[in-house]
Amino acid sequence: MIDTFQRNINYLRISVTDRCNLRCVYCMPPEGVKQTPHWEILSLEEFGRVVDAASDIGIRKVRITGGEPLVRKNIIDLFRYIAANPLIDDISITTNGILFADMAADLKKAGLNRVNFSLDSLNPQNFKDITRLGKFEDVWRGINKAIELDLHPVKLNVVAVRGVNDQEFTDFARLSREMPLHIRFIELMPIGECNPWAVGNFISANEIMTRLREEFGPMQAEIKVTGSGPAKYFRLPGAKGTIGFITAISEHFCGTCNRLRLTANGQLRPCLYANKEFDLKTPLRNGADRQELANLIVRAIRQKPQQHHMDQGWTDRRVMSQIGG
């Protein structure tokens, strides 16, 4: 569906849970966040009904997120449900990778097309410091499993944080040369837990690019990587993978934004950084049919803002895991 700013809205990100098995320093406090009661979270069937309705008005791509989506019980059933919809042509997941290796084959069989791993360090100790709970070896095993199962393109999402992982940028770039991985450096956004210190720890994509050029020389621009979204991609000479940059702060991409977000508790959010949400849970539980749900989604699309206003500060009391990555 085309919105009021002539953008084709064809992509739905679904947060299936606000729970996570890590406590990344820029996302959550050490003790975690108050969990939403189970009965307030949409059931897998309810998520499926939203996807069906959304597909009727032009949604063709679905990404499953969290929290950490793989902690959601019976999550593979949702992949099967979505894959059965002939209008959906791409199903992906963003995961921290801790549980992925053991579930990967079943996920692919259920309909998963590709996977993004959130990975901010290649150093096991630094990884543990950033995540507070995780083991790098578990994620690395998952990444290799994704490659083995041909879930391409396999992407690594790296949130760039000064003084935390900026010393590893060249290591990530080398990884793209050695393996068929697509490294995506994401500018730190002032959201939730990281809001108070985002300015002091912020590194622009331009600075990262400058560092990499100093180390490796010129990089070749890539036209397209499947599911590239807002990232701009480059390739080192002879590299098997690519290096991408997501410039949410320094050069916003709102003019081409094609997505909606559905929170775990059934709120449809047209823009990550705008507080306006549309309640789908209440109509779902009051018996709304497919057409009624589709009409509500159309209403949300028509009110999608022209651009975000991150410069005005984060006013939502929730953290990223509670909204959906």
UniProtKB/TrEMBL annotation:
GO terms for biological process: Mo-molybdopterin cofactor biosynthetic process. Residues 4-218 form the Radical SAM core domain. InterPro entries: Aldolase_TIM (IPR013785), Elp3/MiaA/NifB-like_rSAM (IPR006638), MoaA (IPR013483), MoaA-like (IPR040064), MoaA_NifB_PqqE_Fe-S-bd_CS (IPR000385), MoaA_twitch (IPR010505), MoCo_biosynth_MoaA/MoaC (IPR050105), rSAM (IPR007197). Pathway: Cofactor biosynthesis; molybdopterin biosynthesis. [4Fe-4S] cluster 1 binds at C20, C24, C27. Gene3D superfamilies: Aldolase class I. This is GTP 3',8-cyclase. It comes from Desulfotomaculum nigrificans (strain DSM 14880 / VKM B-2319 / CO-1-SRB) (Desulfotomaculum carboxydivorans). The gene is moaA.
